[in-house]
Amino acid sequence: MGFSGGLDSTVLLYLLCELGVEVRAVHVHHGLSPNADTWLAHCAETAEALGVPFTARRVRVDAKEGGLERAAREARYRVFGELLQPGDTLLLAQHGDDQVETFFLRLLRGAGALGLAAMATRRPLGSAVVLRPLLGTSRAELASYARERKLRWIEDESNSDQTLDRNYLRQVVLPPLRERWPVRERVTRAADNLREAAELLRDLGRGDLELCDRRRESFGESLDLEMLRRLPRRRQKNLLRCWLADSGGDMPEAPHLQQALDQALQAGADRRMAVGLGGRVARRYRNRLYLTPPLGRLADGEWHWQGTSALQLPGGWELRARSGWPQGDYTVRFRRGGERARPVGRRHSQTLKKLLQEAALEPWLREWIPLVYRGERLIAVGGLFLCDEGIAGSLEWCYRGP
Q: Which keywords fit this entry according to its UniProt record (predicted)?
């Protein structure tokens, strides 16, 4: 579970312990407050007192155009993504008042049905699941529970800063609304209705994705641009939103979505593009639109490999021997330029650049494909082809994630 040490996550941790749930507390140190080290120490002490395994990770928050709150959230989810294993559950402590604030924030940003459905009680995160068990509970109820049990929690000094949108809503906008209307109940009802509408749009989007020849690739997914062009504009945008949601991406602002769609649909089959979109990248190649994870910075170096266990490469890539690959002393590295290779079955060598083009390997992956050497001789290019007739086995090169 995400454990900031504040009221909400402290109550959730104690509740889980009371229920006997096996849990690991994960604290993300954002480094944004002078008290951040004190908060980390408090969380570690609390977890130790409860006998709960504890993990802390420090991150750098890069507040770009999306703002500080969004950048901090993205940093937290990167940490969660690194720690979660397939089948794991991530518990988060957002409550009903957080849901109200999220609804109004998204409303004021012009969100559609999917955004206004606000936070789901349960949603996938890669091969794991996110649960928010406190969404039906108010902040006041959590505070009452904590006071009755004399719990200790930290107070983030930034919670009083009304220059932050969420705090302004909480302290200035919502109190007079609550005096007149049952805001939490009404927002919950509206969000539920909008979630149903969003599910209908998602069903339509998934149908359109299949209509556009949705295809899983070695790195992300792709679809047929010509088929996408035939859809009405509103369904094109809905398809892209659905695709992003399915891939675990964040919902981008409408102008960013429009920009990606405009670039993708411009004429010219050879036109290339790479547009950041909700934590993913929209790319174009050979009249197909790709949606991929972001590629990191290419590492320069060599890796020694015996050809037995899987070799973990930078950027979340993995090289694995298959089908009787012989054990031996191999060197693995990325392209440096000017390499030539002669695939098995060919009489003459060619430049690796030309061979990768012939193999239709996507351009953004060509510098990432691992080259396997025995001594100074190139004997294999990722899982694409072998250059040594004496090897009966094969290789698998795949993306496992960051």
A: ATP-binding, Cytoplasm, Ligase, Nucleotide-binding, tRNA processing
As annotated, the residues of the chain forming the CATH 3.30.465 domain(s) are 213-292
Q: Which class is domain 213-292?
A: alpha beta
Residue 267: its pLDDT value, please?
57
8 among the known binding-site residues? Answer: yes
| Residue 7 among known ligand-binding residues | yes
39-50 pLDDT, tens digit per residue, is 999 999 999 999
393 carries a ligand binding annotation: no
In degrees, rounded to 5, the angle at the alpha carbon of residue 395 between the alpha carbons of residues 392 and 399 is 170
For domain 7-186, the CATH class is: alpha beta
Helix ranges (DSSP H) in 172-275: 174-180, 183-211, 225-229, 233-246, 254-265
- The amino acid sitting at 154 is I
| 355 annotated among ligand-binding-site residues | no
pLDDT, tens digit, 9 for 90 and up, residues 349-386:
999 999 999 999 999 999 999 999 999 999 999 999 99
Report pLDDT digits (tens) over 77-114.
889 988 999 899 999 999 999 999 999 999 998 888 88
- Phi, psi dihedral angles at 339 (to 5 degrees): -70, 150
- Residues forming CATH 3.40.50.620 domain(s) in the chain: 7-186
